[in-house]
Fold:
Amino acid sequence: MKKNIWIVFACIFGFLLSSCAQEEELHIYSIIHEEETQALTDLFTKETGIKVSFLRATTGELVNRIIAERDDPQADILLGGATAYHMQAAEAGALEPYVSPLAKNIPEYALSPNGEYTGFCILTLGIGVNTKRYAQKFSSIPEPKTWEDLLNPAYKGEIVLTNPIASSTAYLFVQNQLQRLGWNKGWDYLLTLAPLVGQFPTSGSAPAKLIGTGEYALGVSYIHALAKYNADGFDVKVIAPPQSVGDVDCIAITKNTKNLEAAKKFVDFMLSPKAQELMSSIDFTLPVNPDAKPAKGSVALSEIDLIDYDLDLAASQKNDVLERWAKEVK
Structure:
């Protein structure tokens, strides 16, 4: 009889341990590159013992997923994506507020008003040039220095720009033009540029890669992505045009997550100097934590001329902008 009781007790104890283990497995929807996601989650698991699985996809796809799944989330964390997209998810009731103890070290521009999301690295846009291809195609034309320079009709078919419907990178570029020029002149700019674009990939990482491999002479991308390809030995020149936008890549916890404590630990981890320095060492992003050192070869924020970017305006216009883009451009 005692033996049977101990067997039952062992089974119950084993079940409880199994349940606890399940609670400590974190599921992440990741917008940042797979290499960075893998390195960060490996370090997190090493430091906490919490297992992590992740799905990597585009910003638009993953934000739409967490909004659709908000009553029964399939992921605990949304990792990456510009602020406007996290604002969209927060307004849809898909994010769980959490203010990390490390938030006190983070600049105010990287913090959401109610704690639904927090920035972990700085994003700025620039122009990438494959200098070899450019010299072959446009030997008599100086390299572009400003956003207006991209409107040269000679560049038709030689520019690569991500599709803003799928990518937060391109939406940031669209808002860059709308906010620096105003609504009407901004759309004039975009509708003049669009016919010159040779490809509209869905992934924000694609333009830097396509420029680096010499498939296009010019492209719009995050400066850190261009700097990485340059550091890796690809023929990529980084140009920081005046009147660019700056934003942050954000992290958020999904509403109704089943692993809230593990999710909080991951947010804390992403705001730490160790995690931000690891990420910068891989992709040349600029950390928001002032105690974290950016990678050697990254473009300093002091070298970039930024406009006063209105995040609330970008978020409020998003549906109208993307609807017009789909109708008039792609």
The chain has twelve helices and eleven strands.
